[in-house]
Each structure stands twice: as C-alpha cells, then as structure tokens.
Amino acid sequence: MTATMRRERQLATHNGGSSSSSGHMRSASASAAAAAMDSSSNEHPSVSLSRLSKSDFQAEDYLRTTLRSVPENGMRQFRKALEDARKSASRSLQRNVYKNYESFVFISKEISSMERDMQLLRELLHSINQVGDDLMDDD
After folding, report:
1. What pLDDT is attached to residue 118?
2. What CA–CA distance (Å, rounded) separates 107 from 51?
C-alpha cells in the first residue's frame, strides 16, 4: 500500500466517511493521485540482462518495446540502470582479465615457442627435401 493510499484512508476515516461533495472530491483527487503514482511506479522498466546477452539482440527493438509508454522520469531511471549494468559488466570483465592474465601470458609464450619450433621444422623439411633433390640429380 502506497503512502498516498494510506493518507487517503486516513482522510476518509477522519471525515467519518461523510459523503459531502468536498470530501468526495478530495477523496477522488487523492484516488487519482494514488493511481497516477502507482502507474508511474509500474512504468519504470527494469534492465533485462538475459535479453541483452542474447546473440540476436537488437538494441533499437529492445528500447522501443521497453520504453514504449514510459514517462521521462522512468526513462532516466532506466538509463541509470543501464549504466549500472554496463559498469558491473565492465568490472566483471576486468576481474576476469586479471584473473586469467597469468594463463594468458603462459599460453602466449607457449604459442611463440611452438611457432619457433614450426619454423625450425619447416627449415629441416626443406633441407631434407633439398638433399633428396641433390641425390636425384647426382644419379
């Protein structure tokens, strides 16, 4: 129950449930305000990380459907939530990079070593091929 709805009930109780037109008008306007607050609080969309992480994600479609009938305040809150999600993803990525950095350096050195070994193997195969060609020429 929202604070506005509680105040409306208190007003109705305080007025003794009178049906005077001014009491009714006050109650109706309070009801309208409560409904407006409820609808605006329901209109603050949340960021759907599952939708954002799909391989076929279309940003324009996502924003169009998510923000279809959202007031400006809701859009600002949604933008802040998106920014928070971006920062969280960035921190997570940074943690993963630091966590895996040592493995990355080790694997890079291994790849470099394997490339040198492959170059040496090519040179040896070329030498063997050259010796075979030279033997064939001597016959």
Report:
1. 97
2. 34
Segments of the chain assigned E as strands: none
40 closest CA partner among 4, 65, 69: 69
Q: Quote the CA–CA distance of 75 and 43 in Å, as a whole number.
A: 9
What is the DSSP-derived secondary structure letter of residue 60?
A: H
Distance CA 11, CA 28 (A): 11
**pLDDT higher for 106 or 39?**
106
pLDDT score at 1: 45
Kindly provide the residue ranges of all beta strands, DSSP E only, lying in 36-120, ordered along the sequence.
none
Half-sphere exposure of 94 (CA within 13 A, CB side): 6
pLDDT for res 108: 95
Q: How distant, in Å, are the alpha carbons of 25, 29, 34, 56 from that of 39?
A: 21, 15, 9, 31
The pTM of this model reads: 0.43
Q: Map tokens 């129950």 to a residue.
A: 1
Q: How many of the other CB atoms lie within 10 Å of CB of 5? A: 16
Distance CA 107, CA 101 (A): 10
Q: Is 8 exposed, middle or buried (0-12, 13-18, 19+ CB in 10 A)?
A: buried
Phi, psi of 59 (to 5 degrees): -60, -45
